[in-house]
Amino acid sequence: MIGASFYVVAASTIRLVSDSLFEDTVRRRMTSVSEMAVTLGGQMQDAAADVFYPQLVQAARSTGGRLLVVDENGKVQADTFDERCGVRLALSELHSVLRGEADADYGFHQQHGEGVMQAASIFDAITKRDREQVWVGCFVSSLQPASGGALVLIASVQDEVDSIISIRDRMLLVFAAALAAVLALASLISRIITRPVAELSAGIERMSKGDYRHRVHVPGKGEMAQLAGAFNQMSEQVGNLEEARNQFVSNASHELKTPLATIKILVESMMYEDGMDPELRREFLGDINKEIDRLSSVVGDLLTLVHIDSHKLKLRRERMIFADTVRETAARLTPLAKKRGQEIAVTIGDECEMFADPGKLAQVCYNIIENAIKYTPDGGRITVRLRRTGRDAVLEIADTGVGIPEEDLPHVFDRFYRVDKARSRDTGGTGLGLSIVQQIIRLHAGSVTVQSERGKGTTFIVQLPVK
Questions:
Q1: Which of 356, 325, 314, 313 is nearest to 446 (CA)?
Q2: To the nearest whole percent, how much of the chain has pLDDT over 90?
């Protein structure tokens, strides 16, 4: 496209220059021949032939060309070269004047140079121009006063043609040099632009094949560098999601496989042991029931998380008193705490009326308080405090349990994550409760954080906007 544009510009410029030179030549020549037609026409009628001819020759010398006087039939009556007298000229421009189609006309013709040659050009090898053929102009004007004849001036225009060829050659060289420079610059700019695009394309291809660790490096701070940064961030997030998905599938499979394996062993024991003691059978059935409850709990939690992730979980908001939900949940879990000699102390600083989903917030309170009961030693204390700070309701649930190591704190809300896996399985946890808590709080535009110190207990802090 750049080359085509330069070609059009070069051709148009050369054409304009050529037309300008030829128009100037034609104008000068036609003015000269028209003036001579008037002067010589009058002299031709008044003077004798031996007087008129020298005047014709003198006029031809002043123009640097050849003059011919032609009658109304196109036959030459006088020729300053004394070569074509009596010869009928077959020139289209002459005939148009003799037929009265125009008062004056002109044309250009090639003829043998007879020793004169056209100027050399660097493009002769391409154009295969015959330099021995030179250009002449034929300028015709009717004789005045009207006598039916015409005056013909034949003059060389090869100098003008040579000038045009010279100008054309120089302009083409300039345009060629400019084109080469522009193409080189365009190629450089194209490489600068396309290189990061190519790197991004390669990165996308590698990511599509599962290589999420590949990073695109684009120097600078421009749009492409920002795009590369966004791509790297996206690649990292997709990789993290893929890793989390694989881990989730693995953990879910393990959580489901363990109770199923236990149930299988218990059922097979009952099937193949004849005469099993009724008390032992009842104990086995009780264990099977617990494992089924555990399976049901895992499946229920999984379904809840799936609904949250797919944005299918809809909050059923209504005007509610958050303090009532906290009291009711603590009351439901008090019998479980008393079995282990624990105490649940509830302190309400504000009723915290809000527009939220009571069922989902009850689940949040239940999961956190139940967690505190499970990981607090017998005889421990769970403290539940609700207060209002500004436009937020703040719920703190603290226990005197074993605490969480500092390195595990960032992962407590991860799915299936357990600080003490063996102890967690004994308590029957699925490792999904806190993850569900975090997702529900986020749906309410709130936040949940955890503070803990090993051996000194754990505190969960829930903040919810009060509307």
A1: 356
A2: 21
Side chain identity, residue 289: N
Architecture field, domain 318-465: 2-Layer Sandwich (3.30)
300 and 432 Cβ atoms separated by less than 8 Å: no
Domain covering 223-309 assigned CATH 1.10.510.10 in the classification: no
Largest CA distance in the chain: 161
Token pair of 25 as six digits: 């030549």
pLDDT, residue 422, reads: 41
Task: Provide the 10 A C-beta neighbour count for residue 4.
Answer: 8
Q: How far apart are CA 288 and CA 443, in angstroms?
A: 36
pLDDT in tens, 300-316: 767 777 776 666 677 88
For the domain 2-180, what is the CATH code? 3.30.450.20
Q: Which of 226, 222, 202 minimizes the C-alpha distance to 214?
A: 202
Q: What is the pLDDT of residue 322?
A: 94
Domain boundary assignment for the chain: 2-180, 223-309, 318-465
CB-CB contact of 159 with 136 (8 Å): no
Q: Is residue 32 helix, strand or coil? A: helix
* Cα R_g (the chain), whole angstroms: 53
Helix (H) or strand (E) segment spanning residue 131: none
